[in-house]
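Section 3.1: Structural characterization of target chains.
Under the original work plan, the team committed to producing a structural model for every single-chain target entering the pipeline before any wet-lab resources were allocated. The record below documents one such target. The sequence was received from the expression subgroup and is listed exactly as submitted; it comprises 318 residues.
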Amino acid sequence: MQETMTRRDFIKVAGTSSTLVIGSCFFGTSLFTTAVAAPRVDIQGLFTTQRLNNGVEMPIFGFGAYSTALGEDKIKNTQAVLEALKIGYKHISVFETEEVIGNALMQSGIPRDEIFLSLQLDNKITTEDDFIVAFNESLAKLKTNYVDLLTIFFPPIDTINNDIFNQKVNLWQTLEKLYKEKRVKAIGVTNLNRDLFEQFLPECEIRPMVNQLVLNPYNYDDRLVETSFNRKMQVATFVPFGSGKDLIYEPTITKIAQKYNKTASQVILRWNLQKGYITFASSADVNVIKEYSEVFNFMLDAKDMKAISKLKGTQKSK
């Protein structure tokens, strides 16, 4: 039996000083191959999951089907999602692409319960009525009667006043209602800053199950990640490559990629996974989608994890 590990020990191991236990890559007979709940990670393949605080299994790697990443060509986008499903992606993160995802799921023939759908609605929604209307419209476009994860977005901490905070609390209560109605299997937050934890969490009847954050080698906060874990929230990154393409051409990354005979993108994704982040990667290019999925047959050693982690805060200003 493998030894247990504290959250604090995990942060040290994942970021600097040791290696993570990696299982051999295989696919079992069940839908997902379950990993031990965070912060322990057993990265095996596209089927690997993390257990949320309500017992739901969330795949640790997914396809980010975002309108900003896919563009406006719905036919091309549908083919991209179909390719992701064909490759074996079991987690699709949806933002303003519900119609494309719904069509792809129907065309794929894959049973709905074999795909984990994460949904975030328009960040500008401020009332319960508008939220419910938008949610119902999204379900219709997705051609489903539930989503697996529904999140609400928090703007930067320095822009949040009392009115905005109260709006977010009211929206969270709406998520709780949808959860109780079993129209969503899990609920979470996006960009919940550590400074807001003590103010927001007491307002929650149901604790958030996931905290989605901007996390990548240039920009991460181990204290925020650890605080999320300590409050029983899994952590996800929806911006694994940062802004622009600086990380892809970062000399440290390209050198490490050569060592493992991998691309820079694969190394970056692997770093995110080994840090314990549920990770989404986005592209409309079917070849790139396949490239992104091939991150389970190698492991970055402690020295390389540390070298990549040292890139924090070094991105050149535009």
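The CA atoms of residues 19 and 302 lie 5 Å apart.
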